[in-house]
Design a protein that fits this description.
Layout (H helix, E strand, L loop, with lengths): L9 H10 L1 E4 L3 E7 L6 E5 L7 H16 L9 E7 L8 H14 L5
Parallel strand pairs: 3-4
Antiparallel strand pairs: 1-2, 2-4
Helix pairs in contact: 2-3
C-alpha cells in the first residue's frame, strides 16, 4: 500500500474512533468515518496482546496487502481503521484477505 493512503497521525485515528461507525467479524474490526476530503486513508491497529513485534508487524503487512487490492474500488472520501483481534495471528493471508473484503462489503464501502 502506498504511503499516501496511510493514516498516520494520532489526531486522524482519534477522529475516526470518536466519530466513526464500526463493523466486526471474528478476528477483525473496521472503524470508518466519512471525511471532507477526496482522499482515502487507512490505518491499522495491532495490540501487544496479539504477540511480539515480529507477529504484530506480520499481521500489519498482511492487512496492508489485503486492503491494497481493494483501493481502486473503495469509496475515496473515508478514513478506515482496521483493528486486529486476538486470533488473527494464527490466520493465513487468505483468511485475513477474506475478512477485509467481508467487512468492506458489510459496511457497503465499495463504490
Amino acid at each position: 500500500m502506498k504511503a499516501v493512503y496511510r493514516l498516520k497521525s494520532s489526531r486522524e485515528f482519534a477522529h475516526t474512533y470518536k466519530n466513526g461507525k464500526s463493523v466486526a467479524c471474528k478476528n477483525l474490526v473496521l472503524v470508518y468515518v466519512r471525511t471532507g476530503s477526496d482522499k482515502l486513508k487507512a490505518g491499522f491497529s495491532v495490540s501487544k496482546k496479539i504477540g511480539k513485534s515480529v507477529v504484530r508487524n506480520k499481521v500489519k503487512r498482511r492487512l496492508r496487502e489485503a486492503l491494497s487490492k481493494h483501493i481502486p474500488r473503495l469509496k475515496q472520501d473515508y478514513y478506515y481503521v482496521f483493528i486486529a483481534r486476538k486470533g488473527i495471528a494464527e490466520d493465513d493471508y487468505k483468511a485475513i484477505a477474506d475478512s477485509v473484503a467481508y467487512l468492506l462489503k458489510k459496511a457497503n464501502l465499495f463504490s
